[in-house]
Specification:
CATH topology of the largest domain: Zincin-like
Helix content: 40-55%
Oligomer: single chain
Radius of gyration: 19 Å
Protein name: M48 family metallopeptidase
Number of helices: 6
Strand order of the largest sheet: 1-2-4-3
Pfam family, one: YgjP-like
InterPro entries: UTP_pyrophosphatase-like, YgjP-like_metallopeptidase
CATH class of the largest domain: Alpha Beta
Shape: elongated
Domain YgjP-like metallopeptidase: 95-183
Largest sheet: 4 strands, mixed
CATH superfamily of the largest domain: Metalloproteases ("zincins"), catalytic domain
Distance between the termini: 36 Å
């Protein structure tokens, strides 16, 4: 990309798939399909754009399916906020006892809001967990996974092996449950 600004985003096309290409400080080629259905590829510095084209072509079937999923998800009406809050509060109360000692016996504040790229966010410093409104439409097994995942952040704040060990201790089938979210 000689002559272009560092990190500038360029529109490209490969095999009929339009995508945004950006050079970033990454080690591998990264592919994302955003909530609005746009396709984005990040490539390491020094990687030729034609490699990104080949990468997009190699993942064409996955991209097309992901775009469809995102567009269908965007077309669905959001659930009632109060119903979603009631459900996630109930799930949180069910999970809370195994986390009570680390939380000093105090239930964290549970919130619900519209989010586009996460199913949940835990802020240990505020003793707060926020769940995505769209999680309400996911299978109950997936909902429980997200609740447990977020509560585990009160124990381990990153996604290190120690974190995943805590998740596994509470939900041995967490990988299958997470897959339900990704299949949407």
């Amino acid at each position: 990309m000689a002559g272009s600004k560092a990190g500038a985003v360029r529109q490209r096309q490969a095999g009929g798939i339009c995508y945004q290409l950006a050079r970033r400080r990454v080690k591998n080629l990264n592919l994302r399909v955003r909530a609005d259905g746009t396709v984005a590829v990040s490539i390491p510095w020094g990687t030729a754009a034609r490699e990104a084209d080949a990468f997009v072509l190699a993942h064409r079937d996955w991209i097309e399916a992901a775009v469809q999923r995102q567009l269908c998800r965007a077309a669905r009406p959001l659930p009632d906020r109060d119903e979603a809050l009631a459900r996630f509060t109930a799930l949180s109360r069910a999970v809370f006892p195994s986390f009570a000692p680390v939380l000093g016996g105090q239930m964290p504040l549970i919130k619900v809001r519209r989010m586009t790229s996460r199913w949940g966010v835990c802020v240990p410093a505020k003793r707060q967990i926020t769940f995505a409104l769209a999680l309400y439409d996911m299978p109950p097994e997936a909902q429980l996974y997200v609740v447990v995942h977020e509560f585990c952040h009160f124990l381990v704040q990153d996604h290190s092996p120690a974190f995943w060990a805590e998740v596994e201790k509470r939900l041995p089938d967490w990988k299958a449950r997470r897959r339900l979210l990704r299949e949407g």
